[in-house]
Amino acid sequence: METSTKHTPERLPIVSEKFLHHVWKFGWFTSSHLHSDSGQKIEIMHPGVHNHNAGPDFMNARIRIDETLWWGNVEIHIRASDWLRHQHHDDENYKNVILHVVLHNDASIYLHTPGDLPVLDLSKCLNWDVWKAHQKWLENYGWIPCESVLHHADPSYWFMAHDRLVIERLHERIDGIFELLEQTNGDWSQVAFIELSKGFGFKSNSLAMEMLARSIPYSIVSRHSSDLLQIEALLFGQAGMLQSEKTDDYESRLQQEYSVLRAKYGLNPLSENIWNYGKVRPSNNPIIRLAQLAGVVSKAQHLASSLLHLEQPALMKLLNSEAHPYWKIHKQFGVPRKKEMCTSMGNGSTESLMINVVARLRFAHGKYNSNLYMMNDAMTLLQGLPPEQNSVTYHWNKLGVQIEHAADSQALLQLYSVYCTQEKCIECPIGIKLLQSKTHETHSQPA
Question: Is-contact 24 32, C-beta < 8 A?
Answer without folding.
Answer: no
